[in-house]
Design goal:
Layout lengths: L1 E7 L3 E7 L5 E9 L2 H13 L4 E5 L7 H9 L4 E3 L2 H8 L9 H14 L12 H34 L4
Parallel strand pairs: 1-4, 4-5
Antiparallel strand pairs: 1-2, 2-3
């Protein structure tokens, strides 16, 4: 088994690949979220003789291109809650945080916890759309609430007692 740890960022992701014994198979490298680089990553992972365990943190919507590329290639990919990764990383003495270290840490977690990782299964598009619309609605309500509080504050300041 090989473990692929991916630290997802806005326009690129850092990928680290470990062998089953924990040795580094591929030093951390960056992959931009463009079709040709994602396809090259998929091809690289498929060329390995051992089954991969791909693990990444779902970071906002930035992980979707990677997720789509892996699911279309029928590669097993798992998502881990960033809070779980933070708790896992808290056990280290050195608290340095870089994309390369994070990707290695995610790959190490994939090796240690491979038995308990649940592969991602795509949901119907309607559920994805509902989740997106629900988030948008919540953000709009929050923005409206902030605007109302600011308006009341301005009114109290300009016309006290009304």
């Amino acid at each position: 088994m090989i473990a692929v740890g991916i630290d997802v960022s806005k326009s690129k992701s850092t990928v680290a690949i470990l062998n089953g014994d924990g040795s580094i198979r591929a030093k951390p490298f960056d992959v931009h979220h463009v079709a040709d680089e994602l396809q090259a990553l998929v091809d690289y992972i498929k060329r390995t003789s051992e089954p991969p365990t791909i693990l990444m943190e779902p970071t906002s919507h930035y992980h979707y291109p990677l997720l789509k590329a892996f699911t279309e290639a029928e590669l097993p990919v798992c998502l881990i809650n960033p809070y779980q990764m933070k708790k896992y990383g808290d056990t280290e003495l050195r608290k340095a945080k870089t994309d390369k270290r994070d990707s290695l840490r995610i790959a190490q977690y994939a090796l240690e916890k491979s038995y308990s990782l649940i592969p991602y299964t795509p949901q119907d598009q309607k559920y994805e759309d509902l989740r997106f619309l629900s988030r948008q609605y919540s953000q709009r309500i929050s923005t409206l609430t902030v605007a109302k509080v600011q308006l009341l504050s301005l009114l109290d300041e300009t016309m006290p007692g009304i």
